[in-house]
């Protein structure tokens, strides 16, 4: 059964077009134009397709075919670049410290500690947990990622997971073993709600954020590091969890709850909203005033701004010398739907960043 998802993934990947940015990086411009036209639903000669293609070419100018050593060196070339390369592994580190794999690997033991008695009941509770995650993540991907934005999804998910972990910790600290009551069922419900909150935020969103914020010419190495961090701490959590459950019992859930709060604070203050921002415009988002932008995007963030405002990305783009060609093309375009088509291209770029 476990082979089925992998087989389907392999099958459908055969129909997935290559990223236009990867194609541009490797000099395959005609194929890049065809991919952009496929996403936008327009002909390759359409003005918006050519504008977007020129933007991507400008982003990669002088940065093609970097070796692994050159990419690693380039990650330190400036603070904005280093910052953007640091975020993908950081969000994957946070993802693992939500405690999700502790629940995944040891849910039968956790269910038993919450009062669910019997092997069949424990396995049934574990199966329901998996179903809840599948359904929740499907709904989130279809609705919340673009509807709410990355930042709000991470905040809702992180705070919700923290509250569920604190409830489970409190219940585990006070209830008697094998004693089943209403609080036991509420605690089991808290585990399922934890899964829902995970799927709202720290399950799918780190993959999207990591792919979006990494510089185009360094995305390969930045995401490789982030995947390595994810597996490293997945392994770490799987080894630590049984020790923690044995040594500090309910304190295990307190640790994960506190970590969920810490990552929520980081998102609130230090992660600008990336929804609707073109990959070529991420350099503006994480340029001067990036923390102000982060607070502008945060709920009630104005409290901490003291009236400060960051320059809109549109203004920075217009004044950027690198954008001279882009603005000329846009101003000369006769088609009224050029900008709308470009938005379609960016909105449909996907989490892997087209």
Description:
There is one protein chain. The chain is mostly helical. The chain folds into two domains: 18-65 and 336-354, no CATH class; 79-281, Growth Hormone, Chain: A (Up-down Bundle). Helix content is 71%, strand content 0%. It has 18 helices and no strands. It has helices spanning 3-13, 20-25, 29-40, 47-60, 68-74, 79-96, 100-113, 119-147, 150-174, 182-200, 205-213, 219-247, 251-270, 282-285, 290-297, 313-319, 324-332, 338-347. Helix 9 (150-174) packs antiparallel against helix 10 (182-200). It is globular and about 70 Å long.
Can you tag this structure with a few keywords?
354 residues; mainly alpha; Growth Hormone, Chain: A; 2 domains; disordered C terminus; membrane; signal; Sugar/inositol_transpt
Helices and strands, with pairings:
Layout: H1 3-13, H2 20-25, H3 29-40, H4 47-60, H5 68-74, H6 79-96, H7 100-113, H8 119-147, H9 150-174, H10 182-200, H11 205-213, H12 219-247, H13 251-270, H14 282-285, H15 290-297, H16 313-319, H17 324-332, H18 338-347
Helix pairs in contact: 3-4, 3-18, 4-17, 4-18, 6-11, 6-12, 7-8, 7-12, 8-10, 9-10, 9-13, 13-15
Basic shape: globular
Overall pLDDT score: 83
Number of helical stretches of at least 4 residues: 18
Structurally, the number of domains stands at: 2
CATH C-level class of the largest domain: Mainly Alpha
What's the oligomerization state?
single chain
List low-confidence stretches. 332-336, 344-354
Which topology of the largest domain does CATH recognise? Growth Hormone, Chain: A
Question: How many DSSP-defined strands?
Answer: 0
Radius of gyration: 23 Å
Strand content: under 5%
Classify the secondary structure makeup into a structural class.
mainly alpha
Query: In sequence order, what are the helices and strands, one letter per element?
Result: HHHHHHHHHHHHHHHHHH
């Amino acid at each position: 059964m476990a082979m089925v998802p992998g087989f389907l993934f392999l099958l459908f990947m055969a129909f997935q077009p290559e990223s236009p940015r990867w194609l541009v990086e490797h000099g395959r411009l005609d194929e890049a134009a065809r991919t952009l036209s496929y996403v936008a639903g327009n002909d390759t000669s359409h003005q918006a397709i050519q504008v977007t293609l020129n933007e991507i070419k400008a982003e990669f100018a002088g940065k093609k075919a970097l070796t692994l050593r050159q990419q690693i060196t380039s990650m330190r070339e400036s603070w904005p670049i280093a910052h953007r390369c640091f975020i993908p592994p950081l969000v994957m580190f946070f993802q693992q410290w939500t405690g999700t794999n502790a629940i995944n690997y040891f849910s039968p033991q956790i269910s038993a500690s919450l009062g669910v008695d019997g092997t069949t009941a424990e396995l049934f509770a574990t199966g329901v947990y998996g179903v809840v995650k599948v359904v929740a993540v499907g709904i989130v991907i279809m609705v919340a990622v673009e509807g709410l934005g990355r930042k709000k999804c991470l905040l809702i998910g992180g705070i919700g997971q923290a509250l569920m972990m604190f409830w489970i910790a409190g219940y585990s600290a006070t209830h008697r073993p094998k004693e089943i009551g209403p609080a036991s069922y509420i605690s089991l419900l808290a585990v399922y709600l934890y899964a829902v909150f995970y799927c709202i935020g720290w399950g799918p969103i780190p993959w999207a954020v990591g792919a979006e914020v990494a510089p185009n010419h360094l995305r390969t190495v930045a995401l490789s590091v982030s995947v390595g961090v994810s597996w490293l701490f997945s392994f770490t959590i799987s080894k630590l969890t049984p020790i923690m459950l044995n040594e500090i019992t309910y304190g295990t859930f307190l640790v994960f709850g506190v970590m969920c709060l810490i990552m929520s604070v980081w998102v609130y203050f230090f992660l600008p909203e990336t929804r609707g921002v073109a990959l070529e415009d991420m350099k503006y988002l994480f340029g001067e005033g990036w923390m102000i932008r982060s607070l502008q995007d945060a709920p009630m963030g104005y409290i901490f701004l003291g009236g400060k405002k960051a320059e809109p990305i549109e203004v920075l783009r217009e004044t950027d010398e690198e954008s001279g060609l882009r603005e000329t093309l846009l101003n000369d375009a006769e088609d009224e739907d050029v900008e709308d088509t470009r938005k379609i291209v960016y909105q449909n770029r996907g989490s892997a960043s087209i």
